[in-house]
Write a structure and sequence with these properties.
With 342 residues, the protein is an alpha+beta fold. It folds into 2 domains: 4-196, Fructose-1,6-Bisphosphatase, Chain A, domain 1, CATH 3.30.540; 208-337, D-Maltodextrin-Binding Protein, domain 2. 29% of the residues lie in helices and 22% in strands. It is built from 8 helices and 15 strands. The protein has helices spanning 9-18, 26-46, 69-82, 148-151, 221-230, 249-259, 278-291, 322-336, and strands at 56-60, 66-68, 88-93, 100-101, 111-119, 130-138, 160-166, 170-175, 180-186, 191-196, 208-210, 242-243, 262-265, 295-297, 317-320. The longest helix is centred in the first third of the chain and has 21 residues, at 26-46. The chain starts with 8 loop residues before the first helix and ends in a 6-residue tail after the last helix. Bound molecules: 6-O-phosphono-alpha-D-fructofuranose.
Length: 342
């Protein structure tokens, strides 16, 4: 690789900023600080098995889930990377019930940052890939220190979105609405290098469906028919799909983005809105997949058009190759209007 072909994420962000003469550079700085956070988190994730950082801290988060030390560490790393920068009016994290305010001693800015600091954390002990997901919104309120309403905006209004996947290599993938770009961390120089420019989800893409079939007994009749059709057990599908399910959203979505396929977390009789959070899991992924040429819905309408009402609200999600999401709608759309399990 010649020095000319080495494009760091910092250089790429600067190049992207040049496309917007009106840009102040604040959004670029947000992406740079997220890249720094990712490097720090990656360092700890990659040695998690070597130091006593595993195991629960004996505390549950607001969703009643056991908080593992790495969750807490990642949450603190991101907050500390941004709280003093003057870039943000406030933050919202999966790990905190309300918004995370910028300390009074620091200046504030015009953006709100929402993030899931370490998604898939239940897989940490099994060394399965996990990830960070983030979403950037523009402050709407007059309050310089932000409000919860500044974080509760529909996905179509996101300014930027991205994720970091801590796997066999650490990758950062982001979009500001001008293509989806992937960077791989070169630990030898501590830089994210452009490895996947302008990602487009393959079409037709691999025939892969990704869903937790352990929930089959709670699914709606349409969801059951869909999965039976996909696997060739029902209906006229002469090209059955393969199934892949890691159980870590960032990993399942990263595969879907690069290979194509259909990822689903549907609602069911026990959890009518499914398990995944709209604002800082589904919406950023939906922005990325749409800008890569795919589709993302809740089984009835585009996720990015949903008007959210609360910070941690859940949403069913069907996301990936557009044709496969459209196919899913043929089975489940009419039911999305009805309470699941009816
Ligand atoms: P289930 C991980 O706990 C997570 O939040 C997502 O990363 C993942 O897609 C989902 O939950 C897996 O949930 O119910 O299939 O174990």
């Amino acid at each position: 690789m010649t020095s000319r072909s080495v494009v760091t994420v910092e250089r790429h962000i600067t190049d992207q900023e040049r496309l917007h003469p009106e840009a102040t550079g604040a959004l670029s700085d947000i992406l740079r600080h997220m890249a720094l956070s990712a490097k720090i988190i990656a360092r700890e994730v990659n040695k998690a098995g070597l130091v006593d950082i595993l195991g629960a801290v004996g505390r549950e988060n607001i969703h009643g889930e056991q908080v593992k030390k790495l969750d807490e560490f990642a949450d603190d790393v991101i907050f500390a990377a941004f709280d003093h920068t003057g870039l943000l009016c406030c933050m919202a994290s999966e790990e905190s019930e309300g918004i995370r305010e910028i300390p009074e001693r620091f200046p504030t800015g015009k953006y709100a940052l929402l993030y899931d600091p370490l998604d898939g954390s239940s897989n940490i002990d099994a060394n399965v890939s996990i990830g960070t997901i983030f979403s950037v919104l523009l402050k709407r309120s007059d309050n310089p220190r932000g409000t919860e309403a500044d974080c509760i905006q529909k996905g179509r209004d996101q300014i930027a979105a991205g994720y970091v996947v801590y796997g066999s290599s650490t990758m950062m993938v982001y979009t500001t609405g001008n293509g989806v770009h992937g960077f791989t961390l070169d630990p030898s120089i501590g830089e994210f290098l452009l490895s996947h420019p302008d990602i487009k989800i393959p079409t037709p893409g691999k025939r892969i469906y990704s869903v937790n079939e352990g929930n089959y007994g709670r699914w709606s009749p349409g969801q059951r028919r869909l999965v039976r059709y996909l696997k060739g057990a029902d209906g006229d599908n002469d090209k059955p799909f393969s199934t892949r399910y890691i159980g870590s959203m960032v990993s399942d979505l990263h595969r879907t983005l690069l290979y194509g396929g259909l990822f689903m977390y549907p609602g069911d009789a026990k959890a009518p809105k499914g398990k995944l959070r709209l604002l800082y899991e589904c919406n950023p992924m939906a922005m990325l997949v749409e800008h890569a040429g795919g589709r993302a819905t809740d089984g009835k309408r585009d996720l990015l058009d949903i008007e959210p009402t609360s910070l941690h609200q859940l949403s069913p999600i069907y996301i990936g190759t557009k044709d496969y999401v459209d196919l899913a709608h043929r089975f489940v759309e009419e039911e999305a209007a009805e309470p699941v399990g009816a």
